[in-house]
């Protein structure tokens, strides 16, 4: 064994304690550190020939790179839809690396059963029934891709084509209908060989909405003349967290032949709260569902889950045929269910957080985030230089400049906010208007944080 590696092994407890100390210092200062990275990154260093050892690497990281990492785990990072990481989920994530389980198959480990237990808990959390099976994937993009891959196989079943063998070209043109699809849906269609141009946008409800007009959707389905299609419904759109009427869309399946995929990446968490659960009424009728866990579940990045009613088709798409892996019989190993073979135990942080805080704890995070988003919306409405572009329906505040919201002026506002170090928001375009969006999904965010965000926005827009 290399002498430096052997030395690290002999001092492993001390090295882990040192890493713990660095992490503890970072997390202790998280609420007050700059939310966005200040200044340019350092230049690239040459590849080391003789290593510095674990302690040396930790010191070098803390000196060169840690100061430029964003405060995305903190309470005033409102960009994208970024959750933080609850204390229990951080512990689970560290143990994921320590145990280093490969979830490709059972492999003499109980790890796969822990993931199945976690998936079952999440299925219950989101109001899905036992007809839905699931697996962990890396994020919402992967979850949408898996769901649409199963939908592609279903189209083949309807048309008498084995897509997993013959390829997507054997289907001919595929019709994918959606009102306000997330950009990852088009990416998934590209990856799956269906094609970005096959995504057809259906008219939305009037009145500044992002929800699909179900009557227009029915018209679009009728125009297909009985040809099977894919419908991508949205449970929580990116700009304004609008929800399609899932129950009404599902009812159309009585007259039209389509696969219903629901992108509930973060809107699915409305199911946790009695006040908002009606927004996802009908989610259980979906053929496949996407939920992103490193958003509102507040577990570390690299965690999402996908659900489907047709595990048989999922296995047809993703099974790995090799003698040393074994056939996908009974309860299939996870390598037969997702694009990955080797995969880490990314279910463990979610398991830790669900055990630690339960349904009630995670419901409180959702309810508090929604209340704070509405508070920020009310504050923005009272700032002369700003205006809301849509009602605050759940946890995202979409707003712009009150006068001349040109791309240049809105971009300057975004930079000024980021340069303040107080908060971070992301740009968007809503209804043709350049805008900013503040997404509340972090477990740490408080009323005080919201006031600080509003003060920065008011000053930057003055």
Keywords:
lyase; 462 residues; Aspartate Aminotransferase, domain 2; four-stranded antiparallel beta sheet; decarboxylase; pyridoxal phosphate; globular; Amino acid decarboxylase; Aspartate Aminotransferase, domain 1; seven-stranded mixed beta sheet
Overview of this structure, please?
It is a single chain. This protein has 462 residues and is an alpha/beta fold. It folds into two domains: 27-41 and 52-86 and 358-462, Alpha-Beta Complex (Aspartate Aminotransferase, domain 1); 101-343, Type I PLP-dependent aspartate aminotransferase-like (Major domain) (Aspartate Aminotransferase, domain 2, 3-Layer(aba) Sandwich), CATH 3.40.640. It contains 15 helices and eleven strands. It has helices at 3-10, 12-28, 53-64, 87-99, 111-125, 140-159, 163-166, 183-191, 214-222, 246-251, 293-296, 311-318, 347-381, 407-419, 447-461, and strands at residues 133-137, 176-178, 199-201, 229-234, 258-263, 288-292, 304-308, 386-388, 396-401, 426-430, 433-439. A seven-stranded mixed β-sheet has the order 1-7-6-5-4-2-3, with helices on both faces. α4 runs antiparallel to α13 (347-381), α5 (111-125) runs parallel beside α13 and α13 (347-381) crosses α15. Residues 31-53 are annotated as: Disordered. This is Amino acid decarboxylase. Pfam families: Pyridoxal_deC. Keywords: Decarboxylase, Lyase, Pyridoxal phosphate. InterPro entries: Aromatic_deC, PyrdxlP-dep_de-COase, PyrdxlP-dep_Trfase, PyrdxlP-dep_Trfase_major, PyrdxlP-dep_Trfase_small, Pyridoxal-P_BS.
Radius of gyration: 23 Å
DSSP, total strands = 11
* Structural class label: alpha/beta
What's the CATH architecture of the largest domain? 3-Layer(aba) Sandwich
Gross morphology: globular
The name CATH uses for the topology of the largest domain is: Aspartate Aminotransferase, domain 2
Largest sheet: 7 strands, mixed
**Would you state the CATH class of the largest domain?**
Alpha Beta
SS element count, helices: 15
Low-confidence stretches: none
Strand fraction equals 5-15%
Indicate how many domains the architecture comprises.
2
Query: CATH-wise, what's the superfamily of the largest domain?
Result: Type I PLP-dependent aspartate aminotransferase-like (Major domain)
Widest β-sheet, arrangement of strands: 1-7-6-5-4-2-3
Distance between the termini: 63 Å
The H/E string reads HHHHHEHHEHEHEHEEHEHHEEHEEH
Helical residues, percent: 40-55%
Mean pLDDT comes to: 96
Protein name: Amino acid decarboxylase
Family: Belongs to the group II decarboxylase family.
Modified residues (N6-(pyridoxal phosphate)lysine): 295
Keywords: Decarboxylase, Lyase, Pyridoxal phosphate
